[in-house]
Specification:
With about 150 residues, the chain is mainly alpha-helical. The chain is built from nine helices and no strands. Helix 5 crosses helix 6.
């Protein structure tokens, strides 16, 4: 006897594991749409989940920013949110709420200290390596430049 979950049950299962953006959940659930089920049914379900408070892009953005802020810069976090269907308006609010915009230098400096022991690069190759490390994590060029020179946040 094969047991299949309804689309709503699958959605609630995904949401019980972690927060999802509307776009993420839509992509995951679309794999389970049968021929009889239309894409309209999925949109109706997502609307119901939002109305009932199970699905919230704002809440997803807040959780995403909080979980990623200690390892990544503002640019990377914004890009990841855009890839998950969160527009700039919804993304800027959690970034400001977590004061990420003001703490990017401190967060990058802490990450740099953990990775490189807090010692400024003495040769060009090491400086380039440290710069790439921080830039790949989405920290701004200005912040990376100050940190690689060993300038601590104020």
């Amino acid at each position: 006897m094969a047991f299949t979950l309804s689309l709503r049950a699958r959605a609630l299962r995904f949401l019980a594991i972690r927060e999802h953006s509307r776009l993420e959940l839509s992509r995951k659930l679309s794999r389970y749409l049968g021929e009889a089920e239309a894409t309209d049914a999925l949109e109706v379900l997502l609307d119901e989940l939002e109305r009932d408070g199970w699905l919230s892009d704002q809440r997803f953005a807040e959780h995403w920013v909080a979980s990623r802020s200690n390892r990544f810069g503002d640019a990377r976090i914004r890009q990841e949110l855009r890839a998950r269907g969160i527009d700039a308006d919804k993304a800027s609010s959690p970034l400001k709420a977590n004061a990420l915009e003001n703490s990017e230098h401190a967060r990058a400096f802490e990450l740099w200290q953990r990775r490189y022991g807090g010692e400024a690069a003495v040769d060009l190759n090491e400086r380039a390596r440290q710069t790439r490390f921080l830039m790949q994590r989405g920290f701004s060029g200005e912040v990376v430049s100050r940190i690689v020179r060993g300038q601590a946040p104020r």
